[in-house]
## 1
Amino acid sequence: MQRGQGQLSETFYSTSCPKVESIVRQVVAQKIAQTFVTIPATLRLFFHDCFVEGCDASVIIASPNGNAEKDAPDNLSLAGDGFDTVIKAKAAVEQSCPRVVSCADILTIAARDVVALAGGPSFKVELGRRDGLISMASRVAGNLPEPNFNLAQLNAIFAKNNLNQTDMIALSGAHTLGFAHCTRFANRLYSFSPSSPVDPKLNSTYAQQLMQACPQNVDPQIAINMDPVTPRTFDNSYFKNLVNKMGLFTSDEMLFTNKASQATVVDFANNPGNFNGAFIAAMRKLGRVGVKTGTAGQIRVDCTAFNS
């Protein structure tokens, strides 16, 4: 059991802030109406938060010295719209229930909401996390999966967070949404190996499309949809794409080409209900990682700063 995990509860705020989930949902919906990026940005922010120091909103802290968790190289590509969603939701919640609901819980609720609002499954979230007191850029390296990881490396980094291979594959399905910068997969198009510049595991038509979108030496700001089929819908297309050799990262495609994970990918590609069920289970488990409860941590007033 992770420390304090047993003290999370779906009804944690039922008397202290009974409307918290509807308040957050309203802010999230408004933010999505302004920009679609809200959806992948918020979901990814939750994942990055939980994998470093646990689900404690440590990733949202801003440092004047540029040395907070969010300033680490692996976190620089986290889109501002995810942070903004949590900050706006926190402000709305503070008006109803000041100093009651943690930023960590607001991020957890918002991550659940963006999945549902993108057409994915709805599910209940456990609440009662408190906000962390540590946020350091130096503590990020080695704690987040990289796009070139193999199955053993992915399984190891997820296992460290109490997540098994099925959870890892289900959470990878979040790549049905959002964008990736060309630099993160250019090696598969231009420099895969001396004998084959293009990764032979990449669908050749898809490789041509990627080369058009991401020419060599392209502006590093350029990003493309991770799911070229239904980029704005939370569905199981990611797994269908993998079967069709259209996984964008090596760490995506490998889930299909490695025999040890292939059966799960094929199952999720063929059975959206199985994927949704596994995704919900994995999100709930992810939300328990390294949580602070009881008197640990604090309830931040401003999500971007520790209480003074």
Note: The CA atoms of residues 60 and 304 lie 5 Å apart.
## 2
Amino acid sequence: MVGFKATDMPPTATVKFLGAGTAACIADLITFPLDTAKVRLQIQGESQGPVCAAASAQYRGVLGTILTMVRTEGPRSLYNGLVAGLQRQMSFASVRIGLYDSVKQFYTKGSEHASIGSRLLAGSTTGALAVAVAQPTDVVKVRFQAQARAGGGQRYQSTVDAYKTIAREEGFRGLWKGTSPNIARNAIVNCAELVTYDLIKDTLLKANLMTDDLPCHFTSAFGAGFCTTVVASPVDVIKTRYMNSALGQYSSAGHCALTMLQKEGPRAFYKGFMPSFLRLGSWNVVMFVTYEQLKRALMAACTSREAPF
């Protein structure tokens, strides 16, 4: 057995809630530069046609983007928006991941055998609920990651300044900009990520191919990361463009998508695919492995505290 042993008592909803938020923050700390590179690649060329964009592309590939940012803006630029990112994960992942099992049990009325439909419904529910709670932190994170491009000035000086400036210049609704595409994205991401992880893990365990430990969690998380990237990339690009756009640039998320299609072609919807996969694949591995271990560690700690001397 690798890692902490599973306890006899299943993890409580509180343990899952806290464990999910903590595990997501750890995953963000490790993979944040890849997420920043993904955002830069996704917004590149949004004001140009496909030919002009290709000719004047500042960033080329994941490594090229990271090296360009370090050379022109310094290493700290890779962590632009980290504070908002961690705020987002503590509120966002705690809901969408930490409450997934509880919502799944609600839809299955406590049955041990959950259908794919129940899992998809649970993933969509917690994904949408998480966006409603954490959308302002996502807007600020994306704005920070996108700013400080060559030839452009700093839009915001700090995380608090970003919240205040957006609310002052764009109104309270500005902090919830892109909520619709983000709900769509996270319903898709949650279904692809959590349901795929759930199904792969269940299949491996039922077929006795692996035991419920680190190798099983790693394999399930990597598969979930790839499936999520393929399914969610188009919505993710639209979400990033729309949330980062200037006031009045796009009238809606649909207008943003149509403008991208007309100016840059269908391939624009998969801009930043490789950093998205590298980020989501590595993020899923770190998050799910940490999450599984944290649940066991927290339950072991609770059990040892309650055990009589």
Note: The CA atoms of residues 152 and 178 lie 23 Å apart.
